[in-house]
Amino acid sequence: MTQTKNEKMELLEQRVSSCRGCSLCTTRTQSVFGKGSFSPTVLFVGEAPGEQEDREGKPFVGPAGKLLDLYIEFIGLEEDDYYVANILKCRPPRNRDPLPEEEEACLPYLREQLRLLQPKILVCLGRIAAKRIISPDFRITKQRGIWYDLGGLRVMATYHPSALLRDPAKKEEALTDFKKIAEEIKKFK
Asked: How far apart are CA 93 and CA 27, in angstroms?
C-alpha cells in the first residue's frame, strides 16, 4: 500500500519528535517540525526555533513570526501557497547560533521535507539558512534578494524577521525581496 504525502510527512514528523541525533534533544521542550501546505509553491526556511516556538511546537509563532506573516500577507500568499520550517528542529539554548554538528543532525529532515513538499521556490530566512543552503560564504547584506538556481529549485535569501525587529531600517530591503518573491511566484501560477 502506497503512503500519501500527508502520511509520509506525519511519519517524518514523528521521527523528528523522537530524534536523539544531537544534544539539543536533552534541552528542548518539544521539536518544531514545520507548518503550512503540503503542496506549497514556496518553502521558507529559517535557522532554528526560538523560545516561543519551542513551547508551542510550531515555527515562527513569536514576534518574528508575526512579522513574517505580515510580509507573506503583503505579497498575497494564501495558506495553500507556502510552508515554513527551520534547519534545526530543536531550539539551541539561549537562541545561540546552531553548531555545525546540530545542523548536520537535522539537515536530513529538511532534505526529506524538501523532497516531499517539492516547492518551486525556497526562501532562506537569514544568514545561517543561506550559508547552509546557498553557499558557506554567503553574505546576507550583499547577496540577499538575488535568485539562485539549485537543481531546478529557485532559491533566494532575505533577512530573518528577527533581524528586522532588531534593525527596522532593513525592513524596506526585505519588502523589496518579498516583492521579488511575488514576481517569481507568478511564473509558477
From this structure: 7
